[in-house]
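Need a sequence for this fold. Nothing fancy.
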C-alpha cells in the first residue's frame, strides 16, 4: 500500500493539514519516532525519551497534547493495560496489540 516512510509521513501530514493543524517540528519528530519503530507499542515515558533524543527540551505537556491530537485524528491508537497507556500507529497498521 505505502512503499516507504516518506509516503507514510506525507499521508500523516495531509491528514493533519486537512484537520486544520499545523505541521510543527515537534509533531514531525513524534511521527518519525513511530515510523522508525512501527512494531513497538510505546508508553509515555519511552516516547518522551525518544523524542528528547531529537529535541532535548520537548515538553511533557506538548507530548500529551500531540498524542491526544494524533489519537483523535486516527493516526495513533491508544491501548490501556492496567494503569498504563500504550501508543502505536493506527492509520497503517492492521496488527493487534498482543500480551504475552
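Here you go.
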Amino acid at each position: 500500500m505505502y512503499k516507504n516512510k516518506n509516503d507514510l509521513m506525507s499521508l500523516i501530514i495531509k491528514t493533519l493539514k486537512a484537520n486544520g493543524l499545523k505541521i510543527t517540528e515537534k509533531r514531525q519528530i513524534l511521527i518519525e519516532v513511530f515510523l522508525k519503530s512501527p512494531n513497538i507499542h510505546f508508553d509515555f515515558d519511552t516516547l518522551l525519551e525518544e523524542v528528547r533524543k531529537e529535541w532535548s527540551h520537548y515538553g511533557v505537556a506538548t507530548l500529551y497534547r500531540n498524542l491526544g491530537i494524533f489519537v483523535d485524528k486516527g493516526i495513533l491508537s491508544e491501548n490501556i493495560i492496567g494503569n498504563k497507556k500504550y501508543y502505536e500507529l493506527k492509520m497503517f497498521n492492521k496488527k493487534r496489540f498482543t500480551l504475552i
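For context: The radius of gyration is 13 Å.
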